[in-house]
Amino acid sequence: MNSIHELRKIPFVRLIIPLIIGLITGFYLKISLCFIVTTAGLLVIYFTIILFINKLSGRYEFRPAFGICVNIFIIVSGILLIKSKSDYQENISATIKSSEYYLCKIISQPEQKSGTIKVLLRIIGYKDSDCWYKCKTNMIAYFQKDNNTKTLSCGKIIILKGRLRKVYNSKNPCEFDYKKFLERKGIRCKSYIKTGTWQTVGQRDDLITFAVKLRNKLLDIYRKYGINDNEFAVLSAFTLGYKDELNPEIRHAFISAGAMHFLAVSGLHVGIIFYVLNNLFKFCGRTKYGKSIKLILIVIILWFYALLTGLSSSVIRASAMFTLIQAGMSLNRTINIYNIVAFAAFSILICHPLEIYDAGFQLSFLAVLSIIFFQPLFYRLLVFKNRILDNVWMLITVSASAQLGVFPIIIYYFHHFSVYFWLSNILIIFPLALSIYLAILLFIFYPVTQVALIIAAILDLILKIINFFIMTIEKLPGSMIENLYNNSLETILLYILIISISIFIILKNRHYLYVYLICLICFLSVNFLRTCKIYKQKKIIVFNINKYTAVNFINGRNNYLLTDLDTEKDRRILFNTVQNSWMKYGVNDISKIIDIGASVDNKMIFDSTADLHIKKLFNNMFVSFRGKKLLILCNPDLFQYTSNKRYRLDYLIIGNNLQYRIKTMKNLFDIDKIIIDSSNDFLTRQFWEKECKEYGIECNIISVEGSLEIEL
């Protein structure tokens, strides 16, 4: 009875679980909309009957059945919610693609790119057969730079002429799924807008537009008073959620130091703002309606700050939590923190169901739940009478608690672990809080130049100290463990391990120890089987890297890459493409990189290893790997040679926009399969597709179909 009574105090915890089940089920299972609606209708009828019987009898014998039905109804509602959201976006995108004219509103700050300006547009209308139709969907537009593009700003209404294109993935193994990432944000199309094909027709300001413009003015205040470079980038990120100025070096430094969460406006930042507001409006509590006025003022300012910083999941969660906490304090009600967190998650998922797959959403809620659950337990392990030591210990326990909750999912998504997270939290938390207070003072006193200059100078100094701490921690030996890999099953098992051992330690119930031991055996078994598979693997991967050739040969843990990419100049492009797949296959180190782009004369060049045998002639590579014969063909001069014997090729890889008749090639080679890699343009792809069709040879076009993985 006590447990049932406790569950009644946290209704949103009970509601969020079936909602999450429904959202996940609806996303992965293909269930017809008709079936979902019918099921929901039958459940509503069943609810009504149970309520009617309970009311007539005055008893509640059907309460368990009613509870089960409520949970099923929420699951079905979750399925319906995510299906309707996804289907609407898919249908509207397919409908408007045939149009050429679109009425759009700019809903983001224009972003400068090389030769273009990237803008997020909301399509509010499209023209079809001389009629305009309303719609609501988002797209990414790249405007060709000219004098007119300087006028682009948030809130502008424009008419443009152009063709929408679907967002495609490279479809390389384990690569970041950019297409799904955009789809979850309601973006399914993109377009390149040429000069002269668009014009501004008006301005429609709303609250979001006002917030963007205000943020730009606040950023200008930072610049005006001499806060520049990395200091500006860091300050604008953790106070206003503006991350466009963060360069790769500063991002990597914060990641290595385990301090990246400081750059994302979250509960910590909102908590500091809440603390300031709570003290600022303390005098309101002395009047008759003071608590209500204080509540209204704090809620309005908190949510406007959330809007100002971009309404990320972490900010919405924190703002919702502090709103409910303040409401509870104003009404003198007991606050259940788990119920507040569940309410925040429930509200976000009802409004934006696809947020459940957003890494930021998952990290935000897992971190706060972990802090709520584990921090008091860790904090009680040591007692310090000294106040400074006690505060340091509190910071360490908060950091450790948060990391315990998020490290499995960080490994799953980002494949690394920051060792000195606890140190960066101790060193950064105080100067960061001080920086936020000073930033607020700078905004208040910016008209008073002399005062603002003093505040800005102190703020700039503190930011330099923060960056110095971060850079120092990054350089510590072993600051980050990289190339970690867990699949989804291993990640789930890790969470079950953490939860079960924690409950066993608290309740001393041996059943949870059994769960822990079973999951540990399962986790080790999965890991062992994956390791065995790694040592036995033999595969060839042709990667999809635009305008380049990249062929990967893997034998056990030996890893060979043939590419025409400049591995120094284009190292980032290469490793962004291949790194995740190499981690999955357990081949983090490259045994050898072989350059297929270097020019050679008509001499035969040999390059062999224990697994791979290569002969190079006229920039063409003959490769023998685990019994398979390949030719990477880039130069037709090869066919000046004649031979009485035809050589068998398992795979012919075409590169460098080479067009050559298969009829002539058949004099030298007997070809099983032709692969057109990503270094070829559209016309070359068309040529080879036609040739292969004519001669009945199987053909793979990498830039269209994605990377090709061949298991041997």
Quick structural summary:
The chain has 23 helices and 24 strands.
Radius of gyration: 30 Å
DSSP helical segment count: 23
Helix content: 40-55%
- Beginning-to-end CA distance, first to last residue: 60 Å
Q: By helix and strand content, what is the structural category?
A: alpha+beta
Overall geometry comes to globular
**Approximately how much beta-strand content do the residues carry?**
15-25%
Count of DSSP strands: 24
Q: Can you summarize the main beta sheet?
A: 8 strands, mixed
Quaternary state, please?
A: single chain
Q: Unreliable runs, pLDDT <50, ≥5 residues?
A: 600-604
What would the average pLDDT be, to the nearest integer? 83
Number of domains: 6
Could you describe the 3D structure shown?
The protein is of the alpha+beta class and about 700 residues long. The chain folds into six domains: about 1-95; about 95-205, Beta Barrel (OB fold (Dihydrolipoamide Acetyltransferase, E2P)), CATH 2.40.50.140; about 210-360 and about 430-480, no CATH class; about 360-420, no CATH class; about 490-535; about 540-710, Metallo-beta-lactamase, Chain A (4-Layer Sandwich). The protein is about 55% helix and about 20% strand. It has 23 helices and 24 strands. The strands form five sheets. Strands 1, 2, 3, 4, 5, 6, 7 and 8 form an eight-stranded mixed β-sheet that branches. It has a seven-stranded mixed β-sheet with strand order 15-16-17-18-20-22-23. A five-stranded mixed β-sheet has the order 14-13-12-11-24, with no helix packed on it. It starts with a helix and ends with a strand.
